[in-house]
Amino acid sequence: MKDNTKLTVAGRPHQRPAHPVNTPVERASTYLFPTYDDYLEGAKTITYGRLGTPTHRALEEAVTALEGGFETRLAPSGLQACTAALLAFVAAGDHVLMTDTAYDPTRKFCDRFLKRFGVETTFYDPLAGEEEIAALMRPNTKVIFAESPGSLTFEVQDLPALARAAHAGAAKLIVDNTWGAGYFCKPIALGADVSLQAATKYLVGHADALVGTLTSADEQTAQKIFYALLQLGSNVSADDAYLALRGMRTLSARLERHQENANEIIKWLRKQDAVERILHPAQKGFPGHNVWKRDLTGASGLFGVVLKPTPMPALKAFFNAFKLFGIGFSWGGYESLVLHVKPEQYRSATEWSEAGPVIRFHAGLEDIEDLKIDLERAFMALAAAQK
Ligand SMILES: *Cc1c(COP(=O)(O)O)cnc(C)c1O
């Protein structure tokens, strides 16, 4: 089956003779087993709310269908998917290789939390080749943590090369696949051991719930992920699991439209004098563009723009002129967003040397003509403030 079809059939209820089309919310902590034998049998699937209800199982099934791999487990946020995945594979004395363009809270988890427990992290250039990565590997390197494309600056990483480097040693390759949403990018097919997502973004798709997903390539990896989440006491509410699964039903239609609107906006932005550079993997000559073309099947709606150096009052006028693009964190919902981001503050192995401000856009599902009017308004305000 193709993804468009999988997204509509995976995780659907199976009861007979009649059942609702979509999986309903089942809220429960305690489950009652009619007999002792039922308790022995039931314990193999549904036992207790924290270990998941049929609503959670349905979402897990749908994400596995999309990402490929052996099994999916849920986390209460995208960030906890990142931290639990790291905790599943490291112990005191171990070493982690992490991309310099990882989502900042993921970086800080290594720099602050893991460090206190005797786990050392080395950050690597997201554009490093296989040999450079191999040179950074140590006998105690247990995880290579990639995020592709990278947060804020969108460099695309060579996942098959990272997988080879990891598997030549004793390491697992964990990939934060939030941008590709499991739809445009399939890290497990490219060699990753774990593909995780902030489902908060495109799977939920409506900016109204936080969920993380962790998909493992094989049973042994899946067991480690399961125990990490279990021992951390992770729990996702059945309501939030339901929202993520409901969001997934329209994922392909939404992503195609996010992509289309992003491409149109970029075409428009390229003609603006105030724009220095577009940060988006589908742009020819962009770092990792060829890898993007080889490994991904499309591009989502999140991208960046470097403006020419801009004084703060002009930048404020620019942001305040938007009426449709909202100033807000996160992305992946149906709505357009714009944010001033500062990549120079969040890297250590590489240097961000662009002089002008970096503006991150999320292209929502609004009509493209209305979005262009909004952009026009902001760029006119920017120009007027610099006169
Ligand atoms: C948002 C985000 C996260 C964290 O997700 P939350 O659900 O907000 O915790 C992790 N990784 C990436 C790439 C993200 O964009």
Automatic annotation (TrEMBL):
Reactions catalysed, semicolon-separated, are: L,L-cystathionine + H2O = L-homocysteine + pyruvate + NH4(+)
Q: What is this protein called?
A: Cystathionine beta-lyase
User: What EC number(s) does its UniProt record assign?
Assistant: 4.4.1.13
Q: Which family does it belong to?
A: Belongs to the trans-sulfuration enzymes family.
Q: Which cofactor(s) does the record list?
A: pyridoxal 5'-phosphate
Q: Which domain of life is it from?
A: Bacteria
Q: What is the lineage of its organism?
A: Bacteria, Pseudomonadati, Pseudomonadota, Alphaproteobacteria, Parvularculales
Under InterPro entries, the record lists: Cys/Met-Metab_PyrdxlP-dep_enz (IPR000277), Cys_b_lyase_bac (IPR006233), PyrdxlP-dep_Trfase (IPR015424), PyrdxlP-dep_Trfase_major (IPR015421), PyrdxlP-dep_Trfase_small (IPR015422)
Gene3D superfamilies for the chain: Aspartate Aminotransferase, domain 1, Type I PLP-dependent aspartate aminotransferase-like (Major domain)
Q: Where is this region: Disordered?
A: 1-24
Species per Swiss-Prot/TrEMBL record: Hyphococcus aureus
Keyword set, alphabetical order: Lyase, Pyridoxal phosphate
Q: Name one GO molecular function term.
A: cysteine-S-conjugate beta-lyase activity
